[in-house]
Amino acid sequence: MSGRSRAAVLLAAATTLAAVLVPSAQAAPAAPDTAVLDGARLQRTKLRLDQGDPQLKLALRELTDRADNWLTQGPWTVVDKPRPAPGGDRHDYLSQAPYWWPTQAPTADNPWGCPYVQRDGQRNPEVDSGTDRQDVEKVFDSTYDLSLAWYYTGKRAYAEKAAQVLRTWFLAPATRMNPNLDHAQFIPCKYDGRAIGIIDFSQSYTSVVDALAILGTGAPGWTKTDRTGMAKWNADFLDWLKNSTFGKEEGAAANNHGTFYDMQLAALAYATGDRALARRTVLGARTRRIDPQIAADGSQPQELARTRSWHYSTFDLVAYARLAAIGRHVGVNLWAYQGPDGQGLFKAVDYLLPAASGSTAWPHPELEFHRYAASDVVHAAADAGDKAAQQAVPQLETPPGGDLWALRPAAEQMDSIAG
Question: Cα(100)–Cα(411) distance, rounded to whole angstroms?
Fold first, then answer.
C-alpha cells in the first residue's frame, strides 16, 4: 500500500472514530422574543426534547394531542355572527355580559326579555350564542397550542394551521376583526358595550402575542406580510387600549380587571417595541395593584367577596404571575416586591396553598370549587423561588388535559368560566 493510500485509510478511520465519540452537533433552535413566556427557557426545553428527555416527551404528547385536535377545526371569523354589533359593522367584535339575565319572557315587542338583572357568578347560557366570545377563545387557544407544538416538533401542519387561523380572524380583509372592543360584554336594552368587556381579550390574548413571537422564529407558511400585518393590528389595538374611553376606564379598575388590563398593556407594549411603557406598567403595578388589592395575610378581599371567590382569587393571580413574567424581560422583579403591610405575590399564592394542596377546605364562598385552578400560579411562584409553593407542587391536582407547565411555563386560568 502506498503512503498516500495508508494516509487515506488512517484519516477515514479517525473520522469514523470521532463520529462515534462526539455526536454531531445540532443547530440550536431560535429563542423566540416572547412577552410572557421565557424564550430562552423554551429554547432549552426544545434542546432537551431533541435529546430524548422522557418526562418532557410525555408532556409533549399531551400538547400535540391538543394541536392535532385543532387541525380539523376552524378557522373562525368575527363576521359570521347572526347579527352585527350595535352600529352594524360585522367586523366589530361582540360579546354579551355573562352574568346578566332577562326578567321577562321574550315577545315580539320585547325580543330580549328586558330588563336584564345581574346574578353574580351565574352564567347566562344565551351569551354563548349569537356573539363572538366562544370563537375568539378558540382562536386564542388554538394558535397558542399549534405554535408551541410546531416549535417543539417542527411539524409543518401545526404552523400552517396557526397561520390560517390568525389570517382569518385578524388579517384577511373580508373576515378580519377591527382592532377595538367597543361592543364587548354589551347588555341588551342597556349598554351597547362596556369597558369591563376588555377582559375578554386581556384574559387570553397575550397567548396570541407569544404565539406570534414563536411563529416569527421561522415557521413555514408565516410570511413577512403576515408578520407586518399582525404588528400593525397589535399597534392599533394598543393605541385603542391606551386612548379609548373604555380603555382608560378599565385601566382605572381596582380589582382583577385592572390587573389584567396592566398585563395586556405591558405585553402589547413589549411586543410592539415600547419597552419603556412595558417597564413603567409593571413598576406601576406595585403601588397601583398589589398595595390595594392584596392584604397583609395574602388574601385578596375584593375577590373573596365574589360568589366564585376561589376562581377569582386564582384568576387575579394569573394576571399577576403573567405580569411578573413580562417584568423579567424589562428588569423588574415583581415577585420580590413587598407593600407597606408586607403584602406581595408570594403571600397571595401562599394564602391559596392549603386549599390548592388539598390539606384544607377553601373557607370562602365558591359555587364550583376546582382545586386544580391554582395549579399554574403555584408553579409560577415555585419557579420564582417561593419555598412553600415548591413544597406544594407535588400535591397539586393535575388540570384536565394534563400539566403542561414544563412546555409553556406561563400561568393560565385552569377553570375558565368564560364559556
Answer: 28
